[in-house]
Amino acid sequence: MTKIILGIFWLTFAATGVAASDHSQKMSWIEFKNHFITEICSSKPKRMKAVLQELGSFTVANQDSKIIKKRTQWATDLISGIQTKNFRCSKGGKTYLKRGDKFLNPALMVEIKLGDEKYKAPFLHLPVRPTLETILATSKLINSFEGPGSLDLDQLALLEKKPDFINTDQMAYLLTSQLSDSSRERLVFVRAFKMLKSENVDEVSEALRNLSNIPSRKTLTAIVKVRKNIDPVKNPELMKIADDAIAEINLSIQIGKAMSIVYSGLSYSSILFLASIGLAIVFGLMGVINLAQGELIMIGAYVTFVIQECLAAIFPSMLPLYLLISIPFVFLVTGGMGALIEYSVIRHLYTRPLMTLLATWGVSIFLINMIRVSFGTQNLEFYVPDYLVGGLSVFGDFLITWNRLATIIFAIVILIFTLLLVKKTRFGMNVRAVTENRAMAGAIGVNTRKVDLLSFAVGSGLAGLAGLALSTIYNVNPTMGTNFIVDAFMVVVLGGVGSIWGTVFAALLVGMINVAVEPLYGAVAAKVLVMVLIIAVIQVRPEGIFTMKVRK
Amino acid sequence: MLRSSEKFAVIFFLAGSLLVMASFMGIETSTYLMNLIGQIAAFSLLALSLDLIWGFCGILSLGHGLYFAIGGYLVAMHLVKVAFEKTGTPPDFMLFMGWEELPAYYFGIESFAYLLFIVFVVTLSVSLIFGYFSFRSRVTGVYFAIITQALVYMAMLFMFRNDTGFGGNNGMTGFSEIFGLNFRENKTATVLCGISLAVLGLSLLGCKKLVDAPLGRFMRAVKEDESRLRFLGFDTVYVKLTAWCISAILAAIAGLLYVPQVGIINPRVLSPELSIEIAVWVAIGGRGSLIGAIFGAVVVSGLKFILTGLVPELWPFILAILVVGIVIYLPNGFSDGVKVFSSNARSLVSAPHRKLQS
A230 lies in a domain? Predict the structure, then answer.
């Protein structure tokens, strides 16, 4: 920040001092206007470009802000006239600017009568256009500026596209005004980009210092390019500044990268949590692992897809809300399916937990093939509503994408919901009682059968919600469940039986390890690390990190 | 049931030896049929290995494909190296990675004796390390099953990588000969099939002897009530570890027999599905019965061969219904099914509700 402020002091100096040495400065404003008109009428691209830059500098070369406004107003009018071909010159050197149906003298802006000479609009060669546009945009910016927050962002965006053609004096003047932080940063950035290419060593070093505050890949490539042209013998100091800037930006990019790894780790953890919370509760309760959990996730995503298609066919206006509308449907369908699995299969196998593994595997291949036959094997295409597209750029290349943020928030909401359900309701109390001691809970009147059925249904419903949450982020196809199931197992084993906080912790751990290690050493290394961690943990705590104290 | 195991072992061994002899006498056989029988024999051996620990020791592994793949990959390395030395055409993965020669760990593998030695060493060390740390911390039941599954899944991801020198995604293929026999000859398939059957017979006999020996009694005791055994002062870790390692080596031998017969190995043998399928064979055939496990492998993989050809769409559904149905209604697989036809039908009705150790 201090660097920027220092820069501004330097800029004010530049605006008055450096620009004053320009030869056009010796002219008066009216002389310059005539000079400008003649040069434009020449239709020579080089001369036009030069005089446009001179105009930019001249408009701000005064202490009085009123005069500056007047001059930029004139520049805006005239350049717009040139662009719209309302400004025309004759061969004899006469000119006019057409406004409405009146013809004006362009220098004085007073009405004139035209002779019978032939007038032609000066031809705008392609190389002139960007300069013309940026000077116009900057003039408009200065002209329309009335205080913080009044900056014309459309014009600013135009400048950002063509930083090479801006007028540094105009930019310097703009930066002396009271700007909001974000627009100031953008202006400094635009100006620094231009100054990087300057012949003046001071300007380049100034630009480098400013740019190093704005870390992004774009600035890095620009600086690296400039650094190549620096002569290390002639300008050792500049070289050092460039190196420092590169180092600083690299560091910032690394930090941004780390932040985005943490962020996508969080979102993956959220999905893992949703996928495994049901497993963990049911495992704690019945000692049973549902190998069809992955397929319930898949079914959740397919139900979401069906709801989306139905909405698109019946109420297209409701389509953007389909994710919210799907929530109850997904929960009910997958929960009902879970209840069905419990009632028809698992109920018979309580005393044989290992057989449940095989039976639920049978269920899982049944479900996969059912979906495969009815929907095909291709990836589903989900409509991504506008509010989930894009994100907020935070630091360096780190972007908070809305779809991942929505997943994280959704997982937190579900976590709160589950905690309330288990800790505050009668049903939750029964679940905890049966988990601790099934026989005793049954003896004092808890209907353990009903508790089993309901908690299996809730666990399955939560898995279905995981499918909903990942539908806009990951590929959805019949075999997607198998990608999540092994990670979900690891979460359950690591977190501990039937512990919600254990599941949260383990999901975070496994998710983070996966996302952090995968891009560096591949998916295998991430899995190996988790596996080693699990084997290490079960040496000390065979039932996971967080275990309920249960008397056996 | 148990006594018949020995009978079957002798039949398998004799059938295998006859086939080998027949092939050397120049009798032509159907290559397809020989391959089919040989593959099913390898699967049966795999089922036998799982039955040894699950049926007799109560440890369910959902990752036995790992040991199968160790045997399979090592024999594939042997065959690839032999083919490379004989024909001079490098295997696909070398071309793909732009390698001039095979990686260093292929050293010596062209010798068959060394191959057997290295299969033994690798399988034993993997099973010993994993088994020791798991059994020591008393990981059992469902926990152990899902950890083994995670392990095999991890191994699959590793083998999918292309830079490991094991063929990556496409696996290893293009074998030319095995102990001097060219794969194009009819004789080779017959010999391999015969060897597979003979090895299956020998392993069955060995397993029978093992489960009847004192160690086998210990294994069953562990299955019935491990904590009581521990309370009585026995160290169950070593009982389980021994059974586990023997089982792993049998699975590796199955892989060793399987790969030359199909002519290819790829990471899909490490998919969790295959490993669960092994457990399904055993469950369907009947845990705790050696011949039952073989029966399950033969029936299910035979059905799979036939039905995936006839009705490929329907096979998964049939398998699913078969698995769920048998698991629920025939807790001991077809061993119970046999009882249906005997006078004991009454005991079956209450079977699902009986307290059973699995």
Answer: no
